[in-house]
Amino acid sequence: MLSIVIYDSQFGNTEKIAQAIANSIPSAKALRVGETDPEDLKGVGLLIIGSPTQGGRATVALQEFLESIPTGTLTKTKVAAFDTRFSEKNSNFLLKLIIRTFDYAAPKIAKTLESKGGKLIIPPEGFIVSGKEGPMAEGELERAKLWGSKLS
Fold this sequence. Notes:
It comes from Candidatus Woesebacteria bacterium GW2011_GWA1_41_7. InterPro entries: Flavodoxin/NO_synth (IPR008254), Flavodoxin_CS (IPR001226), Flavoprotein-like_sf (IPR029039). One of its GO terms (molecular function) is FMN binding. This is Flavodoxin/nitric oxide synthase. The structure is a single chain. By secondary structure, the protein is of the alpha/beta class. The protein has one domain: Rossmann fold (3-Layer(aba) Sandwich), CATH 3.40.50. Helix content is 34%, strand content 22%. Strands 1, 2, 3, 4, 5 and 6 form a six-stranded parallel beta sheet that branches. Helix 1 packs parallel to helix 5. The longest helix has 11 residues. The N and C termini lie close together (9 Å). The mean pLDDT is 91.
């Protein structure tokens, strides 16, 4: 089964998570969102999409990619979604309020993938970064590998 992880990354954290997930799935490859287009999704059996959370959403580039997928393209495709995010428990009051108001990117990515015909096979997952530019919180790359191994 052809498996692809498509991601966007600003500071390299989401890319590290995408690579860890791809490495945990036999013959999967990770592609930055600008390296692919919806035509590349034909024949994909497993599609995993990830993005940093920005204002509760995926990056603009990833949102545009998702919107460009024609409805029904992902019929019979297993899908999963992830994001990188701040931990709510270590945040100040204002950041907690923003998080509770806007949520995270992964659930929105998953909903969009399902609207395009994809079959969500695992709940959306978030991986924690220690600050705006990272680094990843301790243990998150290992957790990403474990999460990815559940997908194949």
